[in-house]
Amino acid sequence: MIDDTDRALYQRTLEIKKNAYAPYSNFEVGVVLRARDGTLFEGVNVENGAYPLGVCGEKSAYVTAVTQGYRPGDFDLIVFNASPCGGCRQWHVEFKVDRVVYADADGELVEYTPAELLPDSFIL
Ligand code: THU
Prior knowledge:
Blueprint: H1 4-16, E1 30-35, E2 40-44, H2 57-67, E3 75-80, H3 86-95, E4 99-103, E5 109-112, H4 114-117
Parallel strand pairs: 3-4
Antiparallel strand pairs: 1-2, 1-3, 4-5
Bound molecules: tetrahydrodeoxyuridine (THU).
């Protein structure tokens, strides 16, 4: 269930997204990823003139955490301001985050598990 902490972290994503580099879509995404030890990682989308090379905000948050030594299973929450793309759903599955919280198309905060976002997903 969405709680006050989720709402506060969502407010933080709206600040973080100002650092997005999204000159092509003008769609800015801000992300907070929380590790089980309480550490928060932030991410934004970073686009590229060769469009497919852009990076989603969720991926940049996971990459930052992995750089610090965190691994799949180490995260309990990821919050952001967009409905996740198909590729990022696979990342949520890979990193086994407990809860995925985001603002849906109506601006409502919603919560899903990775399995709900990507049923019967591919796992090596
Ligand atoms: N985007 C994200 O950062 N995360 C998502 O889950 C959905 C899409 C970004 C990618 C691109 O920079 C912009 O939003 C428009 O698609």
